[in-house]
Amino acid sequence: MKVSGPAGRCLGVVFAVLLGLFGTAGLVACGNEDAAETASTESPEPTPIETDDWLARFCAPFISLDDSFQHFDVLVAEPPGEPGEAREAYLDLFAHMHAVLEGSSVSFGELGDPPVSDMEPGFSQAMSNATQRAADDVADLQARLDGIEPDDPAAMAEFMSDMEEAPNPIATAFDDLEEFESAELDAAIGGVPECAVLTTEQ
Which helix (H) or strand (E) covers residue 162, if one does? Predict the structure, then answer.
């Protein structure tokens, strides 16, 4: 699944894997003479998710990540000139990014791996872990900024200089996901309306 624009820079990855299906074995219970009973229960198998449906559910949180990725880059490139305003802008950005990343981590973890056959399992959990790592990194940045007084222009200037040199935390979180590629998802994503913003050239 080739993703264009900032999202493509953020994740040079593609997605994959067989959706796991599992059930429970039947259980038999025996009672006494007054209530002799044999019961066998089997949990129904979950309905397999279609590839297009999986992609639609995947792209929603990923688009939010892409938006946060872009907002970070824009603020770093063009911060407010007044130190106090810049501090508030960064605090607002970090709060938003942290919420998006933690929410995305939960969404990816609950989604499960995509129903394709051309990749090893583990993509869903890897995405969940990566977004949680990014959330933790953003929380560290937020904590550092919280320690800077609004009327300390020197400390704020140093912080903004460090931000110019630092990589986007969303991008660095996905450095170890390059193994996840799927030709099946590459072929399908272009036909999923919910993913159009990620596949359109920007």
Answer: helix 153-165
- Report pLDDT digits (tens) over 178-198: 788 899 998 999 999 999 988
List pLDDT tens digits, range 9-59: 434 333 332 222 222 222 223 333 444 443 344 544 556 689 999 999 999
- Of 17-21, 113-117, 147-151, 187-191, the range with the lowest mean pLDDT is 17-21
How far is Cα 138 from Cα 132, in angstroms, rounded to an integer? 10
Angle at 160 between CA 155 and CA 166, to 5 degrees: 125
